[in-house]
Design goal:
Layout lengths: L16 E2 L2 E2 L7 E5 L6 E6 L3 H20 L2 H17 L1 H12 L3 H4 L2 H16 L5 E3 L6 E9 L2 E6 L4 H7 L1 H6 L3 E6 L5 H12 L7 E3 L4 H9 L5 E5 L2 H13 L4 E4 L5 E4 L5 H14 L10 E5 L3 H13 L19 H16 L3 E4 L22 E4 L6 H4 L6 E7 L2 H9 L6 E5 L3 H10 L4 E4 L18 E2 L4 H6 L2 E9 L4
Parallel strand pairs: 7-8, 7-10, 8-9, 10-11, 12-13, 12-17, 13-16, 15-16, 17-18
Antiparallel strand pairs: 1-2, 3-4, 5-6, 6-20, 11-19, 14-15
Helix pairs in contact: 1-9, 2-5, 3-8, 5-6, 11-12
The protein binds nicotinamide-adenine-dinucleotide (NAD).
Length: about 500
Amino acid sequence: MPQTTLPEVPLPAPGPLIGTDRLTESSGGSAVHRFPATGAADQPVPMAGAREIDLAVAAGTAGAAEWRALTPDRRRDVLLRLADVVEDHGDELVALSIRDSGFPLRVAALGPSRGAGGLRYYAGWADKIIGDVVPTWFGSAFDYAVSEPIGVVGIFATWNTPVYNIGLTAAPALAAGNAIILKPSELAPYAYLRFGELCLEAGLPAGLVNVLPGGAEAGTALVEHPGVGKVHFTGGGTVGRRVAALAAEHLKPVDLELGGKSANLIFPDADLERAVAVSVGGIHGGSGQTCITAGRMLVHESIVDDVVEIARKQIAQHVLGDPFDAGTTMGPVITEAARTRILAMVDRATREGAELCAGGAAAAVPGADGALAGGYFVEPTLLAGVRPDSELAQTEVYGPVLSVSTFRTEAEAVALANGTPFGLSAYVQTRDVGRVHRLAARLACGSVYVNGRGGIGPGMPFGGFKESGYGRLGGREGLMAFMQTKNVWISMDDD
Ligand code: NAD
């Protein structure tokens, strides 16, 4: 393999972490985890089933009680310590998240500081959760409303950016006073499991953070279990619909962070190199496997040739290779099945008339000694002349594929941007400040980024419109998502 900049880190035992116990087998069977850059199987991952979810709820209930008995300033301090511990083990977590998902080092390396940043941000909330004194009607009374933790909450944890994700999901849930059951998919068990161990090392009560890799069986049990008060789901729309339907059957609150089809609107007055880099950066860094990838470029017709040329040049600068190598800009996609699905979409798009301007095939990346020959690499791909009603323009790719379509007027640009079932994010590239505000108001999505890629900061409310889901992570809304409100009315009558 090419030179790596991180030490080889032993993989944690992949069985569920419940309280302080590591299970070596579990009732949900087992799955094989493969390192996406080589396709080699690591070790079987014991998958949680209903029995383990039941055990985790019991551990979580005890952990939540202990956590809630602490004063808010103590909870704040414990979360701040956890943030330090996450950063102290940063190299290890980065290495594990690369093994999990194959994201390249230069992206994975951001995880610990972002994850710790989210923990610190929400630690700051832990001792500032206040209630309201409510004016009363109908006689003399004192009335107040307080926000309380829910108890045990279930979190479907994403495989794409595990350490980063901790700061957006685990951090607010814990700061709100809950215990959590994190359910990573079998595709990415390692970094989350190590995070669970680090929670214990940082002094969080046993059972406060439980980590149970699993698939549909564990996911279903998590939603159905009466001891789980709320579920946060991040994932695709197909499973999201099932989770929402199941939650409705059990009258359980659920927040859904689903997929997107983010438009990048490029106007003639934009800095074109920078505007294009917003899209190309997304398909390089994470191979297009982030929900807010600006994969759908909508370009004013007067500049489309320039934009395609710039995109072609920027794409050509990618370095596909060993994700552990600091020089690699682009890693593999998550599975062989994902690669097959992505390439089939590209194939259908070209057969529908789109022009293939770059990529479009599986990439041969042998690495030293052919070690990467079995990896799931896809060439970064650019398609121009994509019809706005075509599959490629309407469906999430979740792979390194950019599409280019054109518009003539600002109104048409907005209509195209809003013309999919999704509403997660949109990007606007223009120097016209009036246009920025007009578009920000008219784009039907949860996040609008102007002249750059803003990412998902812990203070920013983040979530979808339309089929991109409901509920918000980040900021005060992200904290309140893990709390419930209680009103207390006290008579002041003296008779
Ligand atoms: P997925 O929907 O396939 O799986 C999500 C989770 O559901 C996994 O943990 C999986 O084990 C579990 N699951 C699968 N079948 C289930 C079932 N029948 N019942 C209950 N649980 C089940 O999604 P994925 O491949 O893990 O992630 C990719 C998707 O996630 C993309 O659509 C992407 O856009 C989205 N995503 C969204 C955000 C966001 O914040 N909006 C962030 C990252 C990823």
